[in-house]
Amino acid sequence: xxxxxxxxxxxxxxxxxxxxxxxxxxxxxxxxxxxxxxxxxxxxxxxxxxxxxxxxxxxxxxxxxxxxxxxxxxxxxxxxxxxxxxxxxxxxxxxxxxxxxxxxxxxxxxxxxxxxxxxxxxxxxxxxxxxxxxxxxxxxxxxxxxxxxxxxxxxxxxxxxxxxxxxxxxxxxxxxxxxxxxxxxxxxxxxx
Length: 192
What we know:
The chain crosses the membrane at residues 25-46, 52-72. It is built from six helices and seven strands, in the order βαααββββαββαα. By secondary structure, the chain is of the alpha+beta class.
């Protein structure tokens, strides 16, 4: 899958990428069947009295599953070492990125069929957001995806404890601060 939409920073690497399962089109297939079957049923019950040819209406039943398939094939979820991304769109593109510095929590849910077939939805909640900011829906093994998000969040938090620079650089900063303090105290005493 081409990820021309994904611009990674230096040191950022893709850890997981997926799209919704292709089975996500099943509801659209049912809608398409209804759209295709209803005109045929009307033709059979009305006979020659049905005012329009049936086959053009029945062909409309192909439209919902085709549109659903094209839309699902243009959705991608990515977890990197620094962010979670969701890209969607067929004619246009919408990319949402959530950095681990703002991730508050992650959860997953699986319905009956999700538990049976191993798929579900992973939600990512952010600080200051109104609930779920980002969801990876209908993905395989949602528990491992949730664990990956939480592990990366924890790794990001652990990285916050490190101060930039070396001990020698900080000792030089401390020496400079002490020199400035002595100079300020000397100025204060001389102005009295």
